[in-house]
Amino acid sequence: MRRNIYILIAMALMLTGNAKAQNSFNIPYSQYGIGESTMPYNMPFAASMGGVTYTRSGNNYINPFNPASYAQIEQESFVFDMGLSIQTCTLKDQNQSLYDADGNVAYLTVGFPITKWWKTSIGLMPFSDISYESVRETVDTDSLFGKMKNVYEGMGEISQIYWGNGFNITKNLSLGFNISYLYGSIQKAISYDFSVADTDYYYVNSRRLKNTYIRNLTFDLGLQYYQPIGEKYTLGLGVVAKPHRLMNVKDNALVYTYMTDESLRDTIFPEYGASNEYTSTLEQAFTIGGGLSFARNNKWMVAADVTYAGFSGMKYTEDTLINIFGTSSIRYDNNLKFSLGGEITGDKNSSKYLRRISWRAGFHYEQGKLLLSLDGNDYNLNEWGVGVGMSLPMRKGKSLLNISAAYSCFGNVDPLMRNCFTLGISIGSCESWFVKRKYN
Question: In a designed cystine with 68, which of 176, 291, 295, 395 is the match (CB 3.0 to 4.6 A)?
């Protein structure tokens, strides 16, 4: 019965097509590129240790950030891992602040063995989110149009379905790979509204609309190696790599003018008889990451990760012959991320429940997450954050309830600072599905 419930939950969430439902949560920085990513902080096991993932693996949770970790899934077991998150954010500039909150399904993953040396995982996760609305008003007393109001709007999300495989090469060494399918759409709009719409001087309200459709494959590779030191300690090494990828995406756009009643007046783009569809490019930078961990077996662990990429996220380049929204404000430069975390491991054999709880804490810092050129000024926007968490063992079996609380600070008050608090909850269920009963 329990197995059927898990299968129904997994199918229902997969069929929705998204790991996160669209909402009105305001994410101003998501207007750049293809949106903002919450990975790996959308997973409690990672958020509670500051984003440390490269050397981590377990038999009761899934770590898609290093596919070599799937090799640790136990034979004759099925792992079901689903997470929820609740986020509250404060946006602040030099003049005002805004509070917002949101809750959603963060991810869904499953893992199981194929053979003794080959384990596999399938999952659905958010890749990036786009949700913003802002208004900018300008007044020109020397012009006839008087006041102009610019309204910037955007919504959409990119989701990621992955199929990953981990292989036990030796007792201490495992290798793995992920094949990920990115899909979703982005809708963006800019409106120019004049307080005086006078066709004699061409001060006519106008709107620019654009839709971007992403359907692309990406790949990443992983390695994990664990070296025992004496009888009590283990040194771990993790390496991940993403190759450089240049991909095509489909766009369509409409630029038109309208009067105060917003009825269509004249189409500027596309030209009469021409198509409104065109192709843009999406570029993934070569990314390399490495991690080290040092653990006293079944007692505690400390770990650190470092990730380097040519730039953060994905680089979106619109067809330069069309350039619907003008020149991008993003500057692309090196991205460097550092994570440090520790864990006190609970004693799974203890008769006292409190001693079976595992505790975690961590810190992360990301340099060059977003670089902008706005109003003649250059901004290097970095992020730092802390996280804590715990794993609560279920009454029976190897399943866990993971809870994390994380705080992050991104940017600064010039131009905009975002302070976020995220509460994450996940259920990692490890069930014996493939055991043949000896007796009926």
Answer: 176
The answer to whether 405 and 423 are in contact (CB under 8 A) is yes
pLDDT per position as a tens digit, 248-292: 999 999 998 887 665 666 888 888 888 899 999 999 999 999 999
- Measured CA to CA, the distance from residue 271 to residue 392 in angstroms comes to 62
CA-based nearest residue to 423, from 50, 20, 41? 41
CB atoms within 10 A of CB 181: 13
Closest by Cα among 89, 109, 121 to 40: 109
Residue 120 in tokens: 């596999």
pLDDT digits over 34-70, tens only? Answer: 998 888 888 899 999 999 999 999 888 899 999 999 9
Question: Which residue has 């069929």 as its token pair?
Answer: 15
User: Which two three-digit tokens encode residue 407?
Assistant: 């705080």
Largest CA distance in the chain: 92
Q: Tokens 């007046």 label which residue? A: 265
Count of Cβ atoms closer than 10 Å to residue 70 Cβ: 30
pTM above 0.90, yes or no: no
Q: 358 phi and psi, to 5 degrees? A: -100, 140
Decide: 283 and 322 in contact? Cβ < 8 Å.
no
DSSP string, 265-313: EEEEESPTT--SEEEEEEEEPPEEEEEEEEEETTTEEEEEEEEEESSSS
| Residue 28 zone, left/alpha/beta (φ > 0; ψ -120 to 50; rest) | alpha
425, with CB counted inside 10 A (0-12, 13-18, 19+), is: middle
Q: Are 221 and 241 in contact (CB under 8 A)?
A: yes
Helix, strand, coil percent content, the chain, rounded in steps of 5: 10, 60, 30
